[in-house]
User: Which sequence fits this backbone?
């Protein structure tokens, strides 16, 4: 099936995030197969949750507690979430799958460090009768269900925002593209989406695939780009996420730039939101974590009970190894200083007080956030 999904909604509230995507005939067929792999444990199920790293604030602050809350809600408090974080190490994550199999979890939710490297472990889990939900990143191997955001759309949203910020000066200099890690299949989609918007409309002076998404690597790359291109020639920076945006902005300041070029981001991390308030970062991509986490929990609980997931999923996607994976894709929002109140504050991601610490108090007052 063509994996391109419907364009993201412009404004989304966390309580109304279901995506209306047309389901394929193969989705039903794939969903029917879950009956064969489910553990049918009633409400007293064990859900193995494997998250990829703890450098990005979202996983510990949002994804984990949201999934735990929804599993508890769906099982009357009887379901247990067994958690492990791989800290950006694919080998560690494979070992964690082995441990989950040994502990006889009924289902796995896996956000892969490396989508290819996890395939063998996914196969082991399936052979042990444990269904697998791929979370946030489309893991390879015989996964049963998948939920994430419309990742190509993320890149498009970022690219459009950068063009908006540059205006009629889009070709007056060069931009730098700071993509994510090549081990993350989402990074490829972000990159593709951004290029589909930016190519031919800007001059791309330097482009990097940033090892492990690390801010320090983005900082090093940005310093090299400024040295090669000339600091006054860089008019904008495409950054695939907020963590890297922080490293990029540090490099821009270290180069002595008094007026920073527009820099994009993703994840609406608190530090990124505060940089937006301060005018140092132009935008981020707000990805409402609640509907993604809830979709994963619903699919996991259904699979653990030996039930179909077709009542939860809204479409299918194809991975390099598995066709017609039942899926839910969540829309995203371009986050700028103009819609902070209607997005991250309204949805309870952050309070105005959290954003508007002493350092940002004056800027918040100017924006009407206090």
Assistant:
């Amino acid at each position: 099936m063509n994996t391109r999904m419907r364009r993201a909604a412009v404004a989304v509230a966390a309580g109304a995030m279901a995506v209306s995507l047309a389901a394929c005939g193969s989705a039903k067929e794939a969903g029917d197969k879950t009956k064969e792999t489910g553990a049918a444990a009633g409400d007293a199920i064990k859900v193995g949750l494997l998250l990829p790293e703890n450098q990005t604030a979202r996983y510990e602050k949002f994804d984990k507690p949201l999934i735990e809350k929804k599993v508890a809600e769906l099982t009357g408090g009887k379901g247990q979430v067994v958690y492990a974080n791989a800290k950006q190490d694919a080998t560690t994550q494979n070992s964690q799958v082995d441990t989950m199999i040994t502990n006889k979890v009924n289902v796995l939710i896996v956000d892969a460090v490396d989508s290819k490297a996890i395939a063998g472990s996914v196969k082991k889990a399936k052979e042990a009768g444990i269904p697998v939900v791929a979370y946030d990143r489309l893991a390879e191997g015989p996964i049963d269900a998948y939920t994430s955001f419309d990742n190509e759309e993320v890149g498009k949203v970022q690219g459009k925002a950068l063009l908006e910020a540059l205006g009629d000066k889009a070709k007056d200099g060069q931009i730098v593209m700071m993509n994510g890690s090549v081990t993350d299949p989402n990074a490829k989609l972000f990159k593709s989406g951004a290029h589909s918007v930016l190519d031919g409309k800007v001059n791309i002076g330097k482009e990097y695939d940033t090892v492990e998404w690390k801010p320090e690597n983005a900082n090093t790359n940005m310093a090299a780009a400024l040295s090669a291109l000339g600091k006054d020639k860089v008019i904008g920076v495409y950054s695939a996420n907020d963590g890297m945006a922080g490293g990029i902005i540090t490099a821009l300041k270290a180069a002595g730039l008094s007026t920073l070029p527009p820099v994009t981001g993703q994840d609406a991390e608190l530090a990124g939101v505060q940089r937006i308030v301060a005018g140092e970062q132009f935008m981020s991509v707000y990805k409402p974590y609640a509907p993604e986490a809830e979709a994963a929990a619903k699919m996991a609980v259904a699979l653990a009970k030996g039930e179909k997931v077709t009542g939860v999923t809204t479409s299918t996607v194809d991975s390099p190894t598995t066709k017609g994976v039942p899926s839910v894709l969540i829309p995203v929002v371009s986050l700028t200083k103009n819609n902070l109140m209607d997005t991250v504050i309204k949805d309870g991601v952050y309070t105005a007080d959290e954003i508007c610490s002493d350092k940002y108090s004056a800027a918040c007052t100017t924006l009407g956030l206090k």
